[in-house]
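Input.
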Amino acid sequence: MRRSALFSQIVAVLSRRTPAFRPIPGQPRTFGGALYKMLHPCLARALPENVKTDDTPSEIAADTASDRVQAIGRDQHGRPLGRDALQPGADLLEARLVGADLIEANLAGARLSGARVSGANLTRANLAGARMSGARVSGANLTGVNLIGARLVGADLIGADLTGADLTGASLINANLTEADLTDVDLTKADLAMARLIGANLSGASLRGTRFVVGAQAPPDLVIATLAGARWSDETVWPSDEIAAAVAQSSRLLGDGYEVVVDDGRSRDHYHQPSTPSL
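Output.
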């Protein structure tokens, strides 16, 4: 048994069986501290020679604190997850990280499929190449996050804040981005086939080479309202010639091969209907 553990156990037992302790000015302010100061010389003589006894109460407290792991969530088996689990390539399959503080976490290539990350703060986190299919990320803060090449097939991103995020080459097939903030997001060559974007804000988003495919034809007016302020190029893949023509007619040239969809002032609320097809 470690010396600090032995001292701590003795102090704890005696503390439970002793009346309330009142500190004397200039003396240790806790009963445990007073006991330690009184018993340490005796215990030191009683211990084997190979056990050092140069600990102090503060060192004992530090030893105890270092053994504690502050859980930020739980794995798929319900076991606590500490911050040491936040590593590149980590296996966090179906982990529960609801509301967790994951600011600037490096989870590049991590397995987060089916994970519950709703309401978590992932500001500037590195999730490049992460596998997050089916993950629940609704309401999460993903500001400035790196999601280059990430796989988010069927992910729930309802109301998530992705402002300034980099989703270059990401797969968002069938993802739910309803009411998500995609301001200034880089969606270059991202796949948004069947993705739901009703009420999403794509102002300033880059859609160069972005792929849009829908199962049911979305009304052109809805597409224009949803993409207002977004930048696209001739590499952008639209779901139909009709949509492509409508977007072109509602855009103006920016230069560098980009055009921007001009907001015609129509209210997004007019199009925010559950029965409306996905974009």
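The first strand starts at residue 73 and ends at 74.
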